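INFO  loader      accepted 1 record
INFO  loader      residues=519
INFO  predictor   begin
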Amino acid sequence: MRNTDWSKENKMPGENEAEFDRLLTENAPTPPEDTIAGITPWKTAMNRTLAGIALNCFTLNFLYLNYILPAIGTLLCLLGFRAMRRENRWFRSCYTVSLLQTASLLFRLLINTTVYQQAFYASSGGTALSLGTFLFNFVLFFCLWRGLIAVKEKAGLPPRAKGAGFLILWYLFVFLLALVSYSGLIIGLLMITAYIFILRSLFRLSKELDEAGYGIQSAPSRLSDWSLSLLLSLFLLAGGICGYLFFDTYPMDWTLAGTGERDELLEIGENLIRLGFPEEILDDLTAEDLAACEGALRVVTDVHEYPFNEGQNVLEYREADPDLRTSAGYYWTTVYDVQELTITGIAVELPGEREQWKIFHHFLWTVNPGFCGTESIQLWPAYHLGEGWADGGQLSGQLLYDKDGVTFTSPYHYLGSRTYTSQSIFWGQQTSTDIFASFSLPNDGERQRGYISYLAEEAADGYIIDSWCNYTHQQTWFQYPAWTAMDRQLAGAPNRDGAFFTVQDALQFYPTEEEINLY
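INFO  predictor   done
INFO  writer      dumping tokens
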């Protein structure tokens, strides 16, 4: 090693020390970026916090960004305030609030993998969670404002943080707009512009503190940021898998079917069979529904089959059809080798002073399509138009399936009338009251089936029976959030909507004293 004489007479006092410092600086290795961030973590922590706030306040409703961006934003806020929590009591409060926000977000993301998510958000618990989300953000922004003022005062700068103060006012105004359900464009653009300027002000404030040489000592933690992020991600993944595996179907009360009560009703059943009631469906009726058909006068039956597969396209020759205005030639058509669902509409005329019909809508899965979660039936009963027929009550029904030669039955998870509001591109917003039945079917049996029945009473002469059965089947597990079939029907979704497929069946006939005209 070369020896250097640092005591040469031609050196001015202090020059030897300066030369020594210069050589040390030039020959010292550059520390890693992680080491630099650990020594002065202010810039990294604050940038994470501000980026997290930016991602949390806007929603993009495509490609699941309305879930991904807030999740990333919440995590960034947690990591940012985690590093600054020892700086002052306001940042410590921010860290506590960010922990609560993270727990709330995880709960919301996980409940979205279950069939209970829509029911929860419509309950008082969902309302409390929404209100808690607002309060968490408001407290977070207030503590951030006070924390930045304390930091600037400690750094010897004017104790002001206007950007954080305006952020509080901005958030309050957004909350008021949400309360009044504002959907206009002008104020929305103004709010976005204001938010951009607020974030710009906060980033400039952070840069000002960094340039002033302000630094903090990162709070010690047992877990690194990457370890904490990985742990939360694994928890979310495991919880989501459990949600889809164990909470994707309704809890059903399946029991062995009994026949004791029906033995006393053989005469009623024989009369129905003579009138044309399908015997295999008659065996599915409860004793109460069978007894309600005592003294039946006439029976109307209409059967249709529906496919739940894509089928295959074939080229076939067709004769000219003047009614359809088509000429003879070859046409592509879709052929279904299997039609999995059979829906049978049955009407039983009962004795009385005025005409009354007991309507049955029965479904049977002849082939198991794979039951992936929930099923739903929406009925537009004969009285749904409000003319000609009135509701006679007697809403009833049950579910059945066979396994190893034994029949099991269960009531529906839900069966009743629901008033709901739907949006149509043709009719706009409409409020309706229909009959709904929600349920789940097992995959380990065969001939999964069921029916719904109601009574229609004549209110005026000359009206047809027009009763519709809309059956919605869930075709795949892959959907987020995990909507139920009934929720999709209540939302007025189209017949093919993501994980769900709906078929419509109608029982339509005009009864006269002499004959039945089936449409």
